[in-house]
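#struct-help
A.M.: can someone run this one for me? Single chain, 421 residues.
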Amino acid sequence: METMYIFVGVIALVCVLGFFNEKVTKLTYEIALMLFATILGVLVLVGTIVFSDTPVGNIMKEVQSFDIHDFLMHGVLCFMLFAGSCNMKLKDFKEMARQVTVLSLVCTLLGAGFYGLLIYGASMIFNLNLSLPVCLMFGSIIAPTDPIAATGILSKFGLPKKTSFLIQGESLFNDGIGVALFVCFSGMVKASGSSDQSFLGVMFREVIGAVVVGIVVTVVCFLMYRFSKHKFLKIFISLLTVSLAYSLCEVFHFSGAIASVICGILFSELRSRFCENEEKEHAEIFDSFWETLDVFLNSLLYILLGLSFISILRMEHVLLLSAIAIIANLISRSSSLAISSLFMGKIPDNFTRGGFITLFTWGGLRGGLSVALAMSTKDMVPENIYFIILGCTYAVVFFTTVIQGLTMKPVYKRISKNRTA
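D.P.: on it. Structure tokens below:
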């Protein structure tokens, strides 16, 4: 019953905070939800202390301990990724395949390595007792930009088409690379048999397997979609497509996130090719459903992230370690972009190389995926190290989402002034 109360309460917060923001603060929707929910998280902490050992206090404790990892990775992630990618056109991806591949693969690899080394150096200076494998695992948690944050926030700033597509494409694909890295480094941390697997072997399984599953499941399910005349059944088929692909990837240890993105892009392409004469009402209902579901699930996630942000206080040396985590993220992100940009070919939309690096560094938002991975380390490391990983991850997520998200538009405008003709 308490779980039901939490669900109703989170929906109520989405409505109340969203309405307040619409009428009063007028901030970017997702940023406002997380910012206000964080403030409420502090109040929940106070309420937990005041109403200790009461039904109200118990509910507040359950809110604080909500398992975002389970909610995201074993619940709604596949639907969020499908919704974010089902508007991407295969034609656009072919045009920018090189840039998307370099950013999602090379930049993520370098970013994880740089971040891990920076944190390892800080660990040695401040005597944090973090081993190199733990720091590299931490780097794999932080390195991937979040697809939910990117599509939900950055798409509202009027970025040029190619730049917007590149940010969205990178964020949708690099999480699979991050998960592959996480599997390798977490195996080293646990000193289990998985540590014997090479990165290339894990990546091949995670990525190639996911692509195959996504293509096969989408093609099979789309046959039903194409020949169905029922407007709601078409939506149910799309839900089946992405949930089945994600579930199969879970069974075979492929990247369910990558499979979900493949399903979304391929579904969009097949609809444009074979459903040109689809009834307008059916197409509008389909698009409206996925847009609404995307916004709704995003809203729930940002509220939950904000409410549980208070867990950062469990970390030792909160201010110092939070600052180190944020600075290390900016350095590793900009450094990996500087190197990756050398292999991308032409920089899109006439940005200078320096402007491109600055824009993508400041636009590299992190979100629920990083927090979910951080939470999954609970049984791998000692409690104090777990709280460092979780607390620093929350600090980076909060800074990138709220601070970078709020200042992204002026940063973009300043960079745009120096674009080449």
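A.M.: thanks! Residues 2-64 form one domain.
D.P.: also worth noting: Residues 17 and 23 are 10 Å apart (CA to CA).
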